[in-house]
Amino acid sequence: MTPHSPILSLRRIRKSYGPIKVLHGIDLDIHPGEVVALLGENGAGKSTLSNIISGTVQPSAGEMTWLGRAYAPADPRAAMEEGIGMIHQELKLLPKLSIAENVFVGRYPMKAGRIDRKTMEDRARSGLHRLGLDISPDRLVDGLSTGKQQLIEIAKALTLNARLLILDEPTAALGAEETQLLFRQIERLKSEGVGIIYISHRLEEIRKIADRIVVMRDGAKVQEFESGDVPIRTIVEAMVGRSLERMFPTLPAPTDQVTLEVRNLSSPSNAFRDISFSVRRGEVFGIAGLMGAGRTELVRAISGADPISSGEVLLHGRPVTPRSPIDAIRNGIVLVPEDRKLQGVVLDHSIAENIGYANLGEISRSGWVSSRRIRQFAEECIKTFGVKGRGGQNAGELSGGNQQKVVLAKWLARKPQVVVLDEPTRGIDVGARSSIYDLIIDLAREGVAVIVVSSDLEEVLGVSSRILVMAQGKQAGILNREDANDVSVMELATI
């Protein structure tokens, strides 16, 4: 192997599941100290290719070489032993284990035949500190926010001393500050000769971090750019295979009628304090802030999922402060949560069942529910909301974008007055993202009050009439659309 040789080479990699061809002869080289962005819509084959490299999936044909020799890992452990690590988009932490135990699960440091907890916690603390996460490594993972869990997954990868890291949507749950910390670690790893495969739907960050871009579509490699500094429109058109005229639809003008009002709301855990705002009929109201600002806790409280210590929620001027999710749902307030896989859908149940669970009152007769009525109701929702799937298909078999559409479909079928969307496009490709934005705007046009929480600043700016900015649990300010931009939002978010 020469100094300029690739550390990993893939040649003619194919993968089929029965008659379904997922990958069509992929060739790819990864060199030491470079970041290769692997891009494509959901279903393009990025995850399958990554899983083949990391030993989770076996290819149907083709060959790989690693460090100049044949490479065919039987499982993820074999890949890790070779120096290849992967951070999956779906969090794989064990909630009842500590942070340190999760970081080193399956490879605990040993001393005199026992787990060396001091070494394990010291090394875990070091990895967390490098990512700016000030949290005790002996704390249980259970109860941590999605963003903090994502940082723990990244810290886990940093302790592998890997020669190649595959990062699948590593910033999907992170805010701007945490993302910059991660980018600094990536630059450090590059300087040490580590190769990185970087998968993300946040195209602006690709331009900042990638040395090379590989675009996949329908299981094939369709284009390769020898630089990360490529216009976003060019990247998107390569991904979707068509010209993309616009991303964000035109916002409708909201009415003057206030649908939802939040007055002096505080949480018992102090996650947010003294928050007040209103959302008008037909308005898309954005909530922005850095990770840990209290955004998710606030909307969960409004939706009855988290407790409220003081303050009140009003609907059309009537107090409806929810004490449980069912309280909120009965009053026409629904929440599409940030983690659709854990909180939004039942992955091993069918699309029809998932939609039916939220609409039993609509489809039952005298307390009885027939499978025929569930199927008919679900098929109408699938058609209305553009879900690419069949009613009998398990939700876990769908792409991220279509899973999100199932979550939206089951709640929107109830004709709610207030729809709260927490990270509505996290981990969703640009094509599906555009259709989610269209759904949001359609809701506003129908007179629904919509609240959108997003870590993606471009997104919250693009879909919102007004934006509430939170900082450290406090209300930093509310910006009108004409006053809101990257600078004005971040100035408030960092006070």
Structure, explained:
This protein is α/β, with parallel strands linked by helices and 495 residues long. 34% of the residues lie in helices and 24% in strands. The chain has two domains: 8-240, Rossmann fold; 258-332 and 416-493, Rossmann fold (3-Layer(aba) Sandwich), CATH 3.40.50.300. The longest helix is centred in the middle third of the chain and has 16 residues, at 176-191. It is globular.
The helix tally amounts to: 18
Name of the level-1 CATH class of the largest domain: Alpha Beta
Average pLDDT reading: 87
The major beta sheet can be summarized as:
6 strands, mixed
What global shape is seen? globular
Low-confidence stretches: none
Beta content comes to 15-25%
Count of strand segments: 22
Structural class: alpha/beta
Kindly, what is the distance between the CA atoms of the first and last residues, rounded to a whole number of angstroms?
52 Å
Helix content: 25-40%
Summed up:
The protein is α/β, with parallel strands linked by helices. Helices cover 34% and strands 24% of the residues. It has 18 helices and 22 strands.
Outline the fold blueprint:
Elements: E1 8-17, E2 20-30, E3 35-39, H1 46-53, E4 61-66, E5 69-70, H2 76-82, E6 84-87, H3 99-103, E7 110-111, E8 114-115, H4 117-130, H5 146-158, E9 164-168, H6 176-191, E10 195-199, H7 203-209, E11 212-217, E12 220-225, H8 232-240, E13 258-266, E14 275-280, E15 284-288, H9 295-302, E16 310-315, E17 318-319, H10 325-330, E18 333-336, H11 340-344, H12 351-357, H13 360-363, H14 371-384, H15 400-412, E19 418-422, H16 430-445, E20 449-453, H17 457-463, E21 466-471, E22 474-480, H18 486-493
Parallel strand pairs: 3-10, 3-11, 6-9, 9-10, 15-20, 15-21, 18-19, 19-20
Antiparallel strand pairs: 1-2, 1-4, 4-5, 7-8, 11-12, 13-14, 13-16, 16-17, 21-22
Helix pairs in contact: 4-5, 12-14, 12-15
Protein name: Fused D-ribose transporter subunits of ABC superfamily: ATP-binding components
Domain ABC transporter: 8-243, 253-495
Subcellular location: Cell membrane
